[in-house]
Amino acid sequence: MSIVLKLWxxxxxxxxxxxxxxxxxxxxxxxxxxxxVANSGMFPRAFFPAPADVARTFVALTYKGILPxxxxxxxxxxxxxxxxxxxxxxxxxxxxxxxxWAHRVCWPVLLFFQAIGDIAWLPILLIWFxxxxxxxxxxxxxxxxFPIVLNTVLGVESVHRDLARAAQSLGASRMRVLWEVTLxxxxxxxxxxLRNGLGYGWRALIAVEIIVGTSGIGFMMFDARxxxxxxxxxLGMIVLGILWYIVDAWILAPIxxxxxxxxxxxxx
Amino acid sequence: xxxxxxxxxxxxxxxxxxxSQVTAVHDVSLDVEEGEFVSVVGPSGxxxxxxxxxxAGFIPYSGGEILxxxxxxxxxxxxxxxxxxxxxxxxWKTVLDNVGFGPxxxxxxxxxxDRIAREYLELAGxxxxxxxxxxxxxxxxxxxxxxxxxxxxxxxxxLMDEPFASVDAQTRMTLQEELTRIWQERRPTVIFITHxxxxxxxxxxxxxxxxxxxxxxxxxxDLPRPRVWDHLMQDETFKRLSAxxxxxxxxx
Lengths: 268, 252
Fold this sequence. Notes:
The complex is a heterodimer. Chain A is mainly α. Chain A has helices spanning 2-17, 20-24, 27-39, 51-64, 66-98, 100-115, 122-129, 133-158, 161-169, 174-212, 217-227, 230-262.
């Protein structure tokens, strides 16, 4: 009994010191199960590769430079789309959130276009822009835009009216109120929107790369299907999962928590 | 010399659901002298907060005039400092930056506005809290910041809208005593909205009783200062004036 408790105590202390352990440990049984099934001979190896095969392919593709190149292509596309989405989404959200009339006019339209999923745009985009970067960027921007706009509006509306009034009574102009009150007040929501938007955008990007891509992780996976290489497909899936986990859990979530908590806007 | 003057002030709303006009303030005339502390008291729905919001410029008025040093009031401005019931401190700014916000809007350089802010924080006994964020402070401390933030901007009038209504009873008494002390030191012109009769009498030079959008009556309060609850609670004049005001409010 005490040996179990000692191990548990060691684990808790280790995760406290190196939080990454808490992330990795739960995957040990998953990988183990995968390994057992793959090595049991239940399925042909080419059909259902083992973790070791995937790891070997990972090393080989990284060494050849294919994986890093594709990864970079995907990330650059996502960041370009996200940057445009932020540049359009935040001002639009501020406008809709702070004007009753803009809200009345834009809100139903916004919800209508949000309902048309990103991929549903592809047929018409392919006719308009063809198989290329424009189509891809359009879809990413489209996907990233809505969560940012909707959350920015939510954020602006959550700022207490008295804060804007206080600023005005202290001599702030409308622009200063926007900059000093509305924007910081809405910031935690904006970051939540950005986090959701990037998550959706990442998924949309892979889908688009599968259909129109000439490079990128999505393209790699679909290209591997043509060659019947299950190893590369599974590798692509794992890369997607790991990369998003890193971006979300290590970068976006801490920023979101930091802004909200410090200002006492989020009770946690 | 009168600073603020309300003449036949009127406020009507259009209620889109009822499809008719609703009158919140019928006809209010009131002069406030420079350096005077005026409490406005009345039952809820008497229009006292509406009047304050019009003077602050947060909502437009439908009739009459509001004159500040002879000029008509239009929209919010730094000449009318406001202290809110909700405190309305900027949660993302430190206490120091909250108090320095008014000077910042006037374009005062950082070093100078920090000096001003520290001076006012000292006035409120808050020097130790300068670098903290509002959510780290108790309600009473937050409202002390709210008061000196408005004062640090040197407004011609200080408008206070039930500022102590959301703090506990003990803290409220301390804040009231501190406010009278600060008023004596700085002599700002104050309009103080409250529904608490004892508070109105304790703080003011003059109590205005409001009812159904009209001024019902006014009473001068010539109690000596500094005012301290331990003394005033036993004071016959204070008791008599409070009873008088209470009767007016209840008959309103």
